[in-house]
Amino acid sequence: MDVAQQRPRSRSGRKAFGNQHGVQRPFGLWWGGVEGQGPSTISRRAVLAAPTLLVARPAAAAVSFPDRGLAQGGFVVGRAAPGTRLALDGRAVRVAADGAFAFGFGRDQGPSATLSVAEPGGRREDRRLSIARRQWQEQRINGLPPSQVTPDEETLQRILREREKLATVRAVDSALTGFAEGFVPPASGRISGVYGSRRILNGQPRQPHYGLDFAVPTGTPLRAAAAGRVTLADAFHFFGNLVVIDHGHGVNTLYAHLSAFEVREGQMVAKGDRVALSGATGRVTGPHLHFSLSWFQTFLDPQPVVLPA
């Protein structure tokens, strides 16, 4: 929505975990360090206290990912030894042949999550991940048609069918790995709406905003944020014309309020390919792009992914 917003603040930091010896260690050490930064350091006392932790463990068994995604709304992309099996809070996490994997946390994720690791050699371990809590903004939007805030019964049934259709495409766990190749912004423009904000529509509280809004004029070319397959290109009541792209392993991006499609369902796209033109279809007060990122049915914060600080 075309309402100026401040980027939400978050609290983060290095997390420490205890092991069977009672020694605290930086999050990145056991997992092989923060991706792209090498292994974390540890004190001499900790090294002496836990020799098997550093010596007996083969390097190939490491599971690594940046800890910056360990927050409400966070998105995590990492690497594991090929053949490793992972689960997040009991849900299987697909690991690609080259070890790439992804998962995420919802807006209201609790203070912790459990990552279960089963290595090719048979060793199993559960790790408690500390999830940073965030503060959410409030967004008030007025001037919407009443039918877009409180729909009649016929429209409500349409909305429910569309919700089911969207859930179906987001449930796909494909072997694509576009998510592991990085993301680019789908558009360039002022950010007018942020993820997680509590929304008051025409004075009535409604569900939080689960995307990132770019204030761009109608007809602005929009780009695929990452490589993948177009799984949906259709017209919805709230979203207007929308496109959904599957980037693999349950990771999807959604582009809404479009004025025109430039892709079709089933089409493969590369990162940065044109997919649509922005518009003002659906529930809007003006032209803009609503862009969202999800891991299966969980909407994630796309801002640090496509517009990293």
Describe how the helices and strands are arranged.
Layout: E1 16-18, E2 24-26, H1 27-31, H2 44-49, H3 51-55, E3 63-64, E4 75-80, E5 85-88, E6 91-93, E7 100-104, E8 112-118, E9 124-130, E10 138-141, H4 153-170, E11 190-193, E12 198-201, E13 204-206, E14 212-215, E15 221-223, E16 228-236, E17 240-248, E18 251-261, E19 268-269, E20 274-278, E21 289-295, E22 298-300, H5 303-306
Parallel strand pairs: 10-12
Antiparallel strand pairs: 1-2, 3-4, 4-7, 5-6, 5-8, 8-9, 11-14, 12-13, 14-21, 15-20, 16-17, 16-19, 17-18, 18-20, 18-21, 21-22
GO molecular function, one term: metalloendopeptidase activity
Pfam families: Peptidase_M23
Organism: Neoroseomonas marina
List its salient traits.
four-stranded antiparallel sheet, 309 residues, 12% helix, disordered N terminus, mainly beta, Immunoglobulin-like, Cell_wall_metabolism_enzyme, M23ase_b-sheet_dom, Glucose Permease (Domain IIA), 5 helices
Explained architecture:
The radius of gyration is 21 Å and the shape is globular. The protein folds into two domains: 16-130, Immunoglobulin-like, CATH 2.60.40; 138-306, Glucose Permease (Domain IIA) (Distorted Sandwich). By secondary structure, it is mostly beta strands. The chain has helices at residues 27-31, 44-49, 51-55, 153-170, 303-306, and strands spanning 16-18, 24-26, 63-64, 75-80, 85-88, 91-93, 100-104, 112-118, 124-130, 138-141, 190-193, 198-201, 204-206, 212-215, 221-223, 228-236, 240-248, 251-261, 268-269, 274-278, 289-295, 298-300. The strands form five sheets. Strands 11, 14, 15, 16, 17, 18, 19, 20, 21 and 22 form a ten-stranded antiparallel beta sheet that branches. A four-stranded antiparallel beta sheet has the order 6-5-8-9, with no helix packed on it. Strands 3-4-7 form a three-stranded antiparallel beta sheet. The protein contains five helices and 22 strands. The chain is 12% helix and 35% strand.
